[in-house]
Amino acid sequence: MRTVLVFAHECAPHHRAESTIGAQRPASFARHLPEFGWRAVVICCGREGRESAEERDLRGIAEEAEERLGAAPAGASLVLPTPSLRWDGRLDRWWRRSARGGGGGPVWPLLRRPLTAAKFATGDWSQSWQPCARAAAEGVLRATPVHACIGEHSPDAGLFLGRWLHAVKGIPWVADFRDPVLDPFGPLGRALYGRVARSLVSTAAATVNVHPAWAEEDRRTLGRPAHCVPNGFEPGEHAAPAPPAPGPAVAAFFGSVRPWHRLDLVMDGLLDAGPGVRLLYRGDASARVLAEARRAGVADRVDAAAAVPRGEALALMSSADLLLLLSRPPAAAGGRAEEWYPAKVFEYFGARRPILCVPGDGSSLDALLRETRTGVPARDRASVASALAAAARARRGGTRLPWETGVARVEPHTRRARAGDLARILDGIALPAPAAPARARGPQEVGAP
């Protein structure tokens, strides 16, 4: 059993609520990697201790990590949450002050952009976690050999920490991205941060991304070997769907609603489908969802509220008649829309409910749904209305729309399978594990082969 040290600022169950989906990725790797010969030790930023530590606490963080690893079962993965400092150096302190408005006066808000650019070389808002994570890593290294490292992004602390570990210990590492690293930036930001990103991963053995096209983009822009390990789903997370209760069919969707999402198609289709179906939404865009429902005249058929705990969201997915997946239209984002699919699609696989993708992307997302037979695109108002009306007819007959695929079609997209993909990458870059000591032969073994 070899050990991989994972730096993941957000890791379930210690993550911020807004990082729920991304935080599942390192947690699932930790859960399944031991099946493939790798124990994962994940160092993350604990939700309760953020911006609470001082530099004098670093020694204690290292000692606690060493003790916890020493007490853990042999070969078992472990998640080690740490606090973060209030700030990490003067520049980080100034930036934090500017981000909060500076406590009054017009100057501090004006300084935020130049301070952000100056911080590119030291870390984003997660910088104050880096000293605590380094301390915990030192404790881990005292307790066990480490054969490889993963730096999770975003935020970018994982990249700084992976580079640091390689520099001080020579441990090979990979950078694990969940999106194109330069996507959040405009032209100037891409030019400035592009150099920083290339420097950060210059010692990485490889990069990993969740979409094949994004991995290829990383290969071109970052100059490192690139692999694709998509997100996945955990089959045991979802309860079996309960029998349908009396009443309208339910079409449900969850999470963020982006500017390019076609809520107008959803609401107009809901209007045309009639009163036999209602829409359920849980997430951070309930105000926008309700505003669009009022525009279409269907507010009385829309239940939109704030995000709920993950377990409740998974239960709502499994009990829905139909799951809505909002995609980027093909024309959005300069063509990249044709090479994008959200992590939520895999959670929908686990719910075993049919997926209605609005409006579809005409490319990789549509192909994924076709390949797995888990859903169909609805490109216009009539197609949305037709699918919703079909769910309403099924409910009136006392049943639900069927899940028209088999487990074998979605098995390659489980998180266990994805951990196997990652393990093969780690196998190719890892330091050699020490050989087991030769066992002395006893008298009964003389002459044994």
Please give a structural write-up.
This protein has 16 helices and 13 strands. The protein has helices at residues 20-32, 58-71, 89-99, 107-119, 130-143, 157-169, 187-200, 212-222, 263-273, 286-296, 310-319, 344-351, 364-372, 381-396, 407-410, 415-429, and strands spanning 2-7, 38-45, 78-82, 148-153, 173-177, 206-209, 226-228, 249-254, 277-282, 302-305, 322-326, 355-358, 375-377. The protein has a 7-stranded parallel β-sheet, with helices on both faces. Strand 4, helix 6 (157-169) and strand 5 form a beta-alpha-beta unit.
Write a short abstract of this structure.
The protein is of the alpha/beta class.
Which properties best describe this structure?
6-stranded parallel sheet, Rossmann fold, disordered C terminus, 7-stranded parallel sheet, globular, alpha/beta, 14% strand, 16 helices, 2 domains, 449 residues
What is the succession of H and E elements? Answer: EHEHEHHHEHEHEHEEHEHEHEHEHEHHH
Mean pLDDT, as a whole number? 89
CATH fold group of the largest domain: Rossmann fold
The dominant shape is globular
Provide the fold topology.
Elements: E1 2-7, H1 20-32, E2 38-45, H2 58-71, E3 78-82, H3 89-99, H4 107-119, H5 130-143, E4 148-153, H6 157-169, E5 173-177, H7 187-200, E6 206-209, H8 212-222, E7 226-228, E8 249-254, H9 263-273, E9 277-282, H10 286-296, E10 302-305, H11 310-319, E11 322-326, H12 344-351, E12 355-358, H13 364-372, E13 375-377, H14 381-396, H15 407-410, H16 415-429
Parallel strand pairs: 1-2, 1-4, 2-3, 4-5, 5-6, 6-7, 8-9, 8-11, 9-10, 11-12, 12-13
Helix pairs in contact: 1-16, 2-5, 3-4, 5-6, 9-10, 9-14, 11-12
